[in-house]
């Protein structure tokens, strides 16, 4: 989908969005100003808080959300929309406003994570792209932050690329880093987002050589004593003995990728110590999730590598957020709050301003001020000891450059770690629970 | 990562693969001929069979697996590999052979889904890309085939793009289609892979208009009576009444996206029939998975739309396949079978030939003939009433063009539906179970 030097993101879109634009251009509602809101009705997996991730990626893709020749030809040849709509799409540039939570911010049920304002036609068409990015990246971040909390000060690396689709793997590495991981195995995440990368050798390295000893010797010759040797290809005890025989007690580290880790880690530590390798670090990497990491807190482990569980959201592979029309202009230009009324999927209409109230620096409530008109709603000034959660991400179609690229990732990571400091202690537990703080809606006159 | 008119896929790679190449170029093992095998140790989710998907995508990305200027600059600037390895990567083209299961084929624990033969250096570097693609796409296909079986002859559409990362959504639509779905909401999947697309309107369409009646009237004016109206924005009974009042009894369809579907579908059918709209079809789309679809078998439902559960693998978001060195040359050029010996992650060394044995057309065993050398293993001719499962996908670096693009998708879908016909009836049940047929390994002399 590369056109004129840009890779169009415009067809990461569900067909019904274009169908609605088609009909709305005919009946005149396409130009009605609208407010769409992206939020989660609940925290998947009964987690205690969520982490917004993907915002910077979304903003970059919003810049490339233009229908190029390939896209228009497909839509025309397949009669997806009529000629008038094709002309509209050909000229499409998002000219509206996007406000939202900073990337890395915490969120709770009902938090207005992203608010898109523009004409119906220009805002409705972003539904799928916005949800795809934020639902995936936030699902990874939601899991990653728990692993990061469980790991404490021990280094934590993401190495799950092989268990995620190839582009998702890059996004997952980015989201995990924002939520507290320190490195990734994924090279494209390093190149594109500036995330530190790591990795030395797989079992194939040992199997490629005629003996484990030859493999270890070759690795040390190539990378020096500070490398990490994978010691469980044949037997762990034999692997440790071989490693220290080859490297001496100054070996940097060993990696264990199988077995019952609390038991094996203790045995390997004792063996290393007995061999004088008291400074050799132990990295474990076998099927870890936040619970396994927590269970290793008292074990002599120096670093963790996490694969499958972090890139698949550790049981909750999507954040399950939705994108809903919450306010629009009527035929006379007045603003109307709107919401679906279905019993099991009701949502709350109206434009929203969100604050996190704090007591002595600890979060107490997710306070959401709802305007049933479209006036400016209350600001943080009206909420003593509250932090305003929304910032402007796109203004008049112009994207906030600070949220983009590797710099945006660093800002998001730093913001996440600060926001996490505000959580009450009970939020850090791993068991299923209600959200750590309640979401409180306050209605004001429009 | 677009370079010289191609989008490089070379950094969809874990760092340790390049690190191993770096060390192997120094010690001379980089040029040893190797056989890597991609397989699953078990079927995730205790399913009864698996579905291979992603092969065609992988082959297209294999063609673009070349290190361009951007990739090489990143690796050099970040000291990932040394100058000799950079030179090797700059000239990298896969020149080996890939054999594997046809896309759409069924697989079982231990099935050699993909076999990559080449030098160590050229084959080891494909680990992450191959696993990313096949693990994701097969996870979706594994779930989709069960939904397709549960839906029977009723049309089934994939509409989960919003619950998957943006590129994964396209791959998921493709995998679901191969595994029996009939259409997708995802436009890029339509453009790129030729998959039929569908979709008419969201709740935002109704909320955009001053009344539900205006929304319905406008939609019918735009698309005619054959369109599908979403009738649950306010009240379902009122929505149906309004739909038929506006459209008359010739309305094409209604869609229900909330509520207890067996109950609601029956009520809507009765109401439609009472209004004379006996030909109006009912599509349901609310949080469906294979179990919910099966539970609706006796309900008056005409079509299903499935979102979250299919794109996230319905509880098993990765197929969990691994990529292991199973045979290699030694220093003298002889072939050696190799395998990791760890108790909980042992694998079976040796090159493998795979057959599905049949009795009266029904599958009875996954027969895997293992050669401990590197001779040609037994062929289908030695196995009466057995079907050879592997085909050549890449020969001397040249990709089988028939597996690519929309034509490859159609071939894979047809093959899947044929292969599914061979399954014993017990394989079609949805409950957790052992695999439907046993995997039997037979060792032969090399």
From TrEMBL, chains A, B:
It catalyses: 5-phospho-alpha-D-ribose 1-diphosphate + nicotinate + ATP + H2O = nicotinate beta-D-ribonucleotide + ADP + phosphate + diphosphate. InterPro entries: Aldolase_TIM, NAPRTase_N, Nic_PRibTrfase-Fam, Nic_PRibTrfase_pncB, Nicotinate_pribotase-like_C. Its EC number is 6.3.4.21. GO terms for cellular component: cytosol. One of its GO terms (biological process) is NAD+ biosynthetic process via the salvage pathway. It comes from the Bacteria. Residues 11-135 form the Nicotinate phosphoribosyltransferase N-terminal domain. Keywords: Glycosyltransferase, Ligase, Phosphoprotein, Pyridine nucleotide biosynthesis, Transferase. GO terms for molecular function: glycosyltransferase activity; nicotinate phosphoribosyltransferase activity. NCBIfam families: NAPRTase_put, PRK09243.1-5, PRK12484.1. Catalyzes the first step in the biosynthesis of NAD from nicotinic acid, the ATP-dependent synthesis of beta-nicotinate D-ribonucleotide from nicotinate and 5-phospho-D-ribose 1-phosphate. This is Nicotinate phosphoribosyltransferase. It comes from Microbacterium saccharophilum.
């Amino acid at each position: 989908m590369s056109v004129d030097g840009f890779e169009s993101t415009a067809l990461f879109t569900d067909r019904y969005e274009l169908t609605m634009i088609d009909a709305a251009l005919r009946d005149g509602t396409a130009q009605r100003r609208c407010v769409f809101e992206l939020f989660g009705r609940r925290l998947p997996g009964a987690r205690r808080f969520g982490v917004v991730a993907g915002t910077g990626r979304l903003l970059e893709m919003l810049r490339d959300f233009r229908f190029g020749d390939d896209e228009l030809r497909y839509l025309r040849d397949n009669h997806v929309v009529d000629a008038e709509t094709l002309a509209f799409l050909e000229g499409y540039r998002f000219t509206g406003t996007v406000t939202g939570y900073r990337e890395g911010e915490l969120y709770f049920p009902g938090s207005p994570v992203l608010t898109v304002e523009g004409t119906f036609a220009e805002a409705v068409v972003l539904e799928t792209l916005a949800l795809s990015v934020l639902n995936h990246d936030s699902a990874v971040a939601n899991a990653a932050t728990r692993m990061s909390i469980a790991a404490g000060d021990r280094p934590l690396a993401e190495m799950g690329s092989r268990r995620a689709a190839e582009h998702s793997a890059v996004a997952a590495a980015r989201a995990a880093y924002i939520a507290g991981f320190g490195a990734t195995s994924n090279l494209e995440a390093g190149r594109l987002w500036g995330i530190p990368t790591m990795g030395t050798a797989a079992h194939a390295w040992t199997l490629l050589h005629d003996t484990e000893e030859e493999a270890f010797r070759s690795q040390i010759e190539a990378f020096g004593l500070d490398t990490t040797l994978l010691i469980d290809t044949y037997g762990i005890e034999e692997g440790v003995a071989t490693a220290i025989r080859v490297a001496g007690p100054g070996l940097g580290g060993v990696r264990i990728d199988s077995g019952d880790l609390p038991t094996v880690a203790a045995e390997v530590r004792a063996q290393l110590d007995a061999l004088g390798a008291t400074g050799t670090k132990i990295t474990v990497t076998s099927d870890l999730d936040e619970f396994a990491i927590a269970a290793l807190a008292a074990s002599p482990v120096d670093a963790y590598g996490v694969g499958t569980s972090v890139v698949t959201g550790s049981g909750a592979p999507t954040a399950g957020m939705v994108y809903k029309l919450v306010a629009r202009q009527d035929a006379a230009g007045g603003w109307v709050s709107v919401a679906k009324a279905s019993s099991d999927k009701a949502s709350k209409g109206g434009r929203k301003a969100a604050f996190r109230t704090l007591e002595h620096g600890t979060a107490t409530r997710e306070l959401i001020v709802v305007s049933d008109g479209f006036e400016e709603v209350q600001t943080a000034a009206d909420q003593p000891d509250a932090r305003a959660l929304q910032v402007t991400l796109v203004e008049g179609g112009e994207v906030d450059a600070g949220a983009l690229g590797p710099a945006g990732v660093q800002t998001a990571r730093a913001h996440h770690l600060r926001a996490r400091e505000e959580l009450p202690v009970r939020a850090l537990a791993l068991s299923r629970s209600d959200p750590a703080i309640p979401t409180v809606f306050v209605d004001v006159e429009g």
